[in-house]
Amino acid sequence: MPSQKLLIKYGTVAHSNNLEPIDILISDQKIVNIGKNLSDKVDRVINAKGKLVLPGGVDSHCHIEQKSASGLVNSDTFYTGTSAAALGGNTTVIPFAAQYDGDSLLEVVDRYHNLANKGSIVDYSMHMIIAGPTDNVIKKELPKLILSGHSSIKLFMTYDRLRIDDENILEILKQARKCGAMVSVHAENHEMITNKVKELLEDGCYHPKYHTDSHPVEGEVDAFRRIIQMSDETKQPVMIFHVSSEQGLNEIRSGKSRGVKFFAETCTQYLTLNSHLLDQEQINDGAKWICSPPIRSINDSEALWKGLEDRTLDLVTSDHAPYSFDNKGKFFKDNSPNFKEIPNGIPGLHWRLPILLDRVLNKQCNLDISDFVRMTSTMPAKVYGLYPHKGEIKIGSDADIVIWDTDLNITLSDDMVVDGSKYNPYSGMKVSCWPNEVILRGTTIVKDNIIKTEAGTGQFLSTKLSEYI
Ligand SMILES: [Zn+2]
Q1: Concatenated DSSP letters of 34-74
Q2: Percent of the chain scored above 90 by pLDDT?
Q3: Is residue 304 helix, strand or coil?
């Protein structure tokens, strides 16, 4: 990738702890100087007057070109998924390499490397999903992979083909502690979900709206409590993925106040979408908003905003998981499926940053622009070993910068979609901000909503357990 020497002038630059009017000099893919009234011989001066200059977004929870629990590969390629990411202001993503029972983890990781290397237009590392925790996988393959720069593991406590029992979770936590890896967890009580699904289907409750009832909040509370206990017992930090409910949040708050060291995230959809969306006039339309855990009540969303404000929650991701609204995606099992037959997931890489930044700029929450940077870029980079190369505008860091317009009036719509889902679950929502230019390691990859780079320009980011957490 040709690297430009760039000077970004007159912008308002946001860090994770303050905001200042300052210039940025970029050379050889890095930020080489930050200061007032900078001047230098450069290839291009960007006049960012009146604009916000933020570090590129890091979306640390997104499913791209990945085989799901249902056996279906989701609707993205690395090119479409990372194009959506870049257009929405992200310069780094952390998708998943998904093992299923019987697979060699080494081979799985290799396969995802090939896909990402070919298609990605933003930088990436990856979480390794472990679903078949044999001795060979845990004792031989895992240490090798961690040593070679894959320091993030993902575990599921639910889903038939993915879940790991507590005995194996403890084994993996101990091994992660020994080898130096982060562990993220989808934490819901599997038996409570299975039981509820059976009850609903036996009663003839097939409509998408029953998806919410099928994942009881108590299942989140129980699984959070167990994984926090296991994290405490093994002294292995974990990240609790997609906190969706007020009761779940309270469990996180209680664990943190006891001094257990762990992290928790929520996602755009749990903050801004609610369960009434599953109950549409055209029954199938509700499928667009089926994700797990489910979107819940307005009360839950309000509690989650408070959880971000008091820092019970550390970061916000998209949990991007696109399935097209046709028989290759949401309706692959049946044209009028019951809620259980619909693949779980909604797209979000494109929408996370504009929606959240809009809420911040329009003071719809008690969070400021630095909080936004911390939750969407700095913290994900710190937790997953990408900091200080990623996640902050500072001298020596990669020149991953997004220049935002903040005085717009945009209505989100299906027409804007570039990811494989081909629908926008946030259609109709208005935002006042949008990325004007997205710079990855000193090279412009998006300008005026047009992709300026090619598949394969993104680089793999080798990681080790972060010293910043
Ligand atoms: Zn996910």
Answers
A1: EETT-----SEEEE-TT-EEEEPEEE--B--S-B-TTS-B-
A2: 96
A3: helix
Position 456 in a domain: no
CATH classification of the domain holding 206: 3.20.20.140
Q: How far is the CA of 366 from the centre of ligand 1 (A)?
A: 27
- Cα of 37 from ligand 1 centre, angstroms: 44
Q: Is residue 389 part of a domain?
A: no
Asked whether residue 283 is domain-assigned, the answer is yes
Residue 189, pLDDT above cutoff 80: yes
The dihedral built from the CA positions of residue 80, 85, 91 and 95, taken in this order, carries a sign that is: negative
Compute the distance from residue 192 Cα to the ligand 1 centre, in Å.
20
In this structure, the number of other CB atoms found within 10 A of the CB of residue 215 comes to: 23
63 CA → ligand 1 middle, Å:
6
Q: Using the mean position of ligand 1's atoms as its centre, give its distance from the Cα of residue 427 in Å.
A: 21
**Token pair of 115, please?**
């896909």
Read off the pTM.
0.97
Strand 401-405 and strand 434-440: the pairing is antiparallel
The verdict on residue 172 lying in a domain is: yes
Q: Which contacts qualify for 196-200: CB closer than 8 Å, 24 or more apart?
A: 197/340, 200/339
Number of domains in the chain: 2
The pLDDT score that the predictor gives to residue 67 is 87
Residue 434 Cα to ligand 1 middle (Å):
25
Separation of CA 326 and ligand 1 centre (Å): 21
Separation of 240 CA from ligand 1 center, angstroms? 11
Give the distance (Å) from ligand 1 centre to CA of residue 345: 8
**Cβ–Cβ under 8 Å, residues 398 and 389:** yes
Query: What is the per-residue pLDDT across 95-153, written as a single tens digit (0 to 9) for each?
Result: 999 999 899 999 999 999 999 999 999 999 999 999 999 999 999 999 999 999 999 99
C-beta atoms surrounding 332 within 10 Å: 17
Dist. CA 319 → ligand 1 center (Å): 5
At residue 71, the pLDDT reads 79
26: domain CATH number is: 2.30.40.10
pLDDT at 247 over 60: yes
Residue 234, both tokens: 């093994």
**Which band of pLDDT confidence, cut at 50, 70 and 90, is reported for residue 197?**
very high
Question: What separation in Å is there between the alpha carbon of 94 and the centre of ligand 1?
Answer: 11
Q: How far apart are CA 426 and CA 90, in angstroms?
A: 18
pLDDT band at 37 (very low <50, low <70, confident <90, very high): very high
For residue 402, the enclosing domain spans 6-55+395-419+430-451
* pLDDT tens for each residue of 392-432: 999 999 999 999 999 999 999 999 999 999 999 999 999 99
Tell me, in angstroms, the distance from the centre of ligand 1 to residue 242's CA: 8
